[in-house]
């Protein structure tokens, strides 16, 4: 049951609202034993092929054009 709850939680975290299940679909998923749909890959998931050797000109510092800033005091 724990595995199913985590799987449903991943479905609820889809990037696009149309890809997320409705409350009635969630209740159905929790009530009946059946195969759950696979969640789509999140836009925050970075996948890098470790087998490819990069040369300095190939370095990619942002795979999804997202940046993260940290505020620090002086």
TrEMBL record:
SUPFAM superfamilies in UniProt: Protein kinase-like (PK-like)
InterPro entries referenced in this protein's UniProt entry, alphabetically: Kinase-like_dom_sf
Entry protein name: S-locus receptor kinase C-terminal domain-containing protein
